[in-house]
Design a protein that fits this description.
alpha/beta; seven-stranded mixed β-sheet; two-stranded antiparallel sheet; 20% strand; binds glutamine
Length: 301
């Protein structure tokens, strides 16, 4: 029997099911549409039609089977497709960066609401794919965004996203704020005597080391460990940011940190003991604690 798009979908779905993929039908569909460079409407209209037996179709079929093979190994769908949507924009991703999460949209939306921008200098630590920095550049009216990561491989991904999404772009007739990418360990990436920042944002690694082993294979085995591992209690980066950050922030500057759902009280205490004021814990769409925000004292810390 010659193959159809439906028969290929069924093959992929069954293959993924056999490997305990949590979304076999949906994932097989995404991979089929990608391999055959088509969309859902075309699939629905033509799925029962026999596919012609030509070189192009054979190549598309080979690529589809190869992608199903990768997904069967539990490689994340986004790494296979090379993209993830975040704040309505498509970001390039690979195995060197954390895949942008919907949770992090809560962080970005909160900043855009509370600080839509009037020429501020923003610092984004642990930028990864650059999804926070680029979204703020696209949507806010800031002066500059300095985005730091320890991983030079991650910074290549961030650079590609900046190039693709902010390239020659204009924001309502204005240039987007420049995103300045820097490699280094948190504040060590900054220069001595650097002009202080108005706002610090970070989605640092925050999962306690021992918890990582119990995560889904997609996260545990394929996302970068250094983007997830927040040390024994998961709080190391908050301690360092609260302690070291003061020297790089203006008086009255704001800080916005993504946190794990159960870290609100601990992160609040860390910020408090470092002299931060106006500390608030903000929930995500699912009602879980997701962001801690605070300000430095307007008289200096
Ligand atoms: N939210 C991510 C997860 O649960 C973790 C992100 C992080 O450590 N910053 O997989």
């Amino acid at each position: 029997m010659r193959q159809t798009l439906q028969s290929l979908l069924t093959f992929g779905r069954e293959e993924l099911k056999r490997h305990n993929n949590p979304e076999p039908e949906l994932d097989a569909k995404y991979l089929l549409l990608e391999a055959f460079r088509t969309d859902m409407a075309h699939f629905l209209m033509n799925r029962s039609r026999e596919l012609p037996d030509n070189q192009e179709i054979r190549e598309m079929t080979r690529r589809y089977r190869e992608m199903i093979g990768k997904r069967a190994l539990r490689i994340p769908l986004q790494q296979i497709l090379g993209v993830q949507e975040f704040m309505g924009v498509s970001f390039f991703v690979n195995r060197h960066v954390l895949i942008p999460r919907q949770d992090t949209e809560t962080l970005v939306e909160l900043i855009l609401k509370e600080h839509p921008g009037q020429g501020e200098r923003i610092l984004d630590l642990c930028t990864g794919s650059g999804c926070i920095a680029v979204s703020l550049a696209l949507r806010g009216r800031y002066k500059t965004i300095t985005a730091v990561d320890l991983s030079s491989e991650a910074l290549k991904v961030a650079a590609k996203n900046c190039e693709r999404l902010l390239g020659e772009g204009e924001n309502e007739g204005r240039q987007y704020p420049k995103v300045d990418l820097r490699q280094g360990d948190l504040f060590m990436a900054l220069k001595q005597g650097e002009e202080p920042f108005d706002l610090l944002v970070s989605n640092p690694p925050y999962i306690p080391t021992a918890v990582i082993e119990g995560l889904e294979p997609e996260v545990r085995d394929f996302e970068p460990r250094m983007a997830l591992d927040g040390s024994g209690d998961g709080l190391e980066f908050y301690r360092r940011i609260a302690l070291e950050g003061k020297a790089f922030l203006k008086k009255g500057a704001s800080i916005y940190l993504e946190i794990g759902y159960d870290q609100g009280t601990s992160v609040k205490a860390i910020l408090e003991s470092n002299g931060f004021r106006h500390i608030r814990i903000v929930q995500d769409q699912a009602g879980r604690d997701r962001v801690v925000t605070a300000a430095t004292d307007s008289n200096g810390l």
